[in-house]
Amino acid sequence: MLYVQFVVLLTIISLTSCCDSDQGTVSHHLDPENGLVEDIIPQPQVPTIKVDMELLCQHWVHSREEQEDPNSKTQIFRRNGSREFRASWFRMRFVFQPDATCSWMYLHPADNHSLKPGIWSTEPTEPDVVYIVDADSKQLLYRLRVLELSNDVLRVTNLPLPEDR
After folding, report:
1. The most confident of 20-29, 32-41, 142-151, by mean pLDDT
2. 83, 105, 148, 162: least buried by Cβ within 10 Å?
């Protein structure tokens, strides 16, 4: 009877303890010599790349036709002029300059879309994340994790903005 209770307890612990921690997924198993053992299975890490400023400082156009899932947070941009895009009501654009100024296509409610001025930067702690701040309001508008950067392609994921902007 005690053995059955132990197995039931072990099963409950295993089912309830397989949750995410800061280091990975916590898992428990029974080791005959050591009893109940906690394992931490590491979370898969997104490889970080250091953003190459020369490659980034171009005019980038959203190439949504290449995205498999149109609702994905990951977006593909192509260098302006590298291909012809079909007509679109709105197509996001980013223009990064070497002097840390930038502009992005503003989606205007009255269809008066235009490039708005901003400032871009990266942080030493996150060399693969580009921050874009509105030049007028000084409000953080975008946090883009660069997943791929070459002469012709910029693939980014939109990261959530901090609550205390």
Report:
1. 142-151
2. 162
